[in-house]
Amino acid sequence: MDATQELATFLRSRRERLDPRDLGLPSRRQARRTPGLRREEVAELAGISVDYVVRLEQGRGLRPSADVVEALARALRLTPVERAYLFNLAQQRPRNADQPATTAPPPLARLVADLSPLPAMLLNHRYDILAWNREMTRLLLDFGTLPPPRRNSMWLCLMHPRIRELYVDRERVVREGIAHLRAAWAAHPEDRVLTDLIAELAGRDEQFARLWAERDIEVNGRGRKVMRHPDVGVFAVHFEVLVPLHDPDQRLVVFRAADDESRSALDRLCGR
After folding, report:
1. Domain for residue 98, yes or no?
2. Of 24-33, 145-154, 185-194, the least confident
3. Predicted pLDDT at 35
4. Quick one: 115 and 141 in the same domain?
5. What is the 3-state secondary structure (H, E, C) of 144-205?
6. HTH cro/C1-type domain location, by residue (predicted)?
């Protein structure tokens, strides 16, 4: 399959499936020879020239800009999945991404609760903590007692006195978190809140500034952390990071005890 030809075919197929009446377009006396919208109508809805639409649908090797792809996606009433497919075919990335979630979608919030007795929480790409269950509050802290701007696991790891002392191998944990944060920053350059968070951490924490300057990039989906908890002592957990298909910028983090001794410690910590 050739991406240019697939782009052309995909645009034609999405144009032909639309009913002009559903878009409020005026009816025409002349019968339509093809189903769906005319190229002229797509061009008008997208704010681009008819000739450009023709060349795209003929697969003449054009690479539309991100703005043009976004305009075509709106004109053709593409679903979010179709929109992402169109951007991928055009080898472009949306310039104006949707605002990052600041609250958990209800189905994901329920899933976090249902994962008990495993400690679980939901993060967005900035590491903002959107949802958590009871076990996670026992393991880390009660995030509900914090103001929303401070419900960020990277900020807590660096700035909160309890979390700062929690990880036995703190250097590695911080390094991995910063490598993820740099990857998120590159994927979301328009996110001013993320940029401001990075600037704050770099200005207030020497370790963050030093590791950020090393420019390590990593997205770690699973691993092991050793914790020194003030109530139950040292234990280890395995963590798994899952990405919801409908919310790809969010991360579901689940902890499991790494061994029998750690499981016993977690049971005592969570009152089981």
Report:
1. no
2. 24-33
3. 73
4. yes
5. HHCCHHHCEHHHHHHHCHHHHCCECCHHHHHHHHHHHHHHHHHHCCCCHHHHHHHHHHHHHC
6. 29-83
